[in-house]
Amino acid sequence: MVNFDHIGWQAESKTGAIAAGGAGAVAAGMAILNQGGNAADAAAGTILALNVTDHGACSIGGEVPVLIWNGQEVKSLSGMGRAPRAQPAIDWYMQNGIPDKDIKMAPVPSVFDLCITMLQQYGTLSFATIIAPTLSLLDAGGEVWHPYLARTLRRLVEEEQRTHGNREEKLQAACDRFYGRHPERNDIAVELEAFYIDRGGFLRREDLAAHQTLIEDPVSINYKGYEVYKCGPWTQGPYLCQALRLLEGFDLKEMGHLSADYVHTATEAIKLATADRDAYYGDPLFVDVPMDALLSDKYTKLRQPLIDLTQASPDVRPGDPINMAALKEGGVYRPGIGGTTTCVVADKDGMIVSATPSANVYHAGGSGTTGVSYGNRLRSLNTTPGHPNCIAAGKRPRITLTPTLVLADERPVLAISIAGGVSAILTEAKILIALSQLLDTKVRSQD
Length: 447
What we know:
Layout: E1 16-20, H1 23-34, H2 39-53, E2 58-63, E3 66-69, E4 74-77, H3 87-96, H4 111-122, H5 127-140, H6 146-162, H7 167-179, H8 187-198, H9 205-210, E5 215-216, E6 219-223, E7 226-230, H10 238-247, H11 252-255, H12 260-280, H13 291-294, H14 297-303, E8 343-347, E9 352-355, E10 358-359, E11 404-408, E12 411-416, H15 424-438
Antiparallel strand pairs: 1-8, 2-10, 3-4, 3-9, 4-5, 6-7, 7-11, 8-9, 11-12
Helix pairs in contact: 1-2, 1-5, 2-4, 2-5, 4-7, 5-6, 6-7, 10-12
């Protein structure tokens, strides 16, 4: 294990690099790289270790959207749990709202399935190998829930090792045991369900068994020679793409980096994109998000004149990408939930993972005998009938978590993961806009 004291803010390497929330989680990922693992292996190990080092900001019961460059293409992995599938639960939310600091705010735990899916599709190592650093952290820790989570994870290692078949089949067996899909052993799901029922929650074993991590095409735009990739509209990510499209019509470099005009123009673009986010984004499996129209040249040109260089707008101003109108009545901001950590991994062969683990754990002690804490992400949904982000059975919340990958000349040049809820995208926009100013219009790889 790497000495935590030697982990600093600046580093370079020819074998791999990791940036993440807790030093212990970074060390876990580095240990996996040093054992010959690739970026997907190390990212899975780092994310699971963050549940210990950054517990409260993230947990296995929370969520983690991921972007991955495998050397050929960028893919999005939807590490986001869903709302309960039972309609009486949804009826309760619609009548009473989505509570704060109550187990009813919890979606299905998604992080474990995300990590297994990433290992199956892109990794090389076993679950036993990538979970070993996390188990060391748990065994050395002093929290009440640490031995419970360690016991849960060791049961999954046991399931992997007792299963016959190839690496992917062994990984799937461990995953199935966690989510109650194993034909013989569903003990973990039984314990989770018992905890949900005891605390008055709506999640059941059927919700756990139905969960899956989708591998999706990301949303992307070309911004001054950069290909900017974001997860889809089940996150807030695409509104960075919208903001950058709006900014294409302004000479930011001439304004001067972080000048008053620069900050004003960028802020107004982000406000317009945010208004569209809150009017149109939601789980695309449930609603038709007009993403192509929102990013189109025609719609962008309609919206650009709304940025007044002489004054700031106090209004929420969504547009109408369906009828191609610059403005639509009835805009309202719907703030998301903060409390998150970070994870970016690159390996020696050029694979890159950008992930944003979160959960906002408001309680202590995990989830009963499993040690799996629950998150609050159902609060990112709303109860406005007809709204694209209105809660529904089995629906993913539209979350603020928003990892970023940037390519130039079909090669990655930047990976970003930022904590901070809605405000995270402001930091991303500043980084990307500054980069385009400093490097003219394009960057070219030199090796």
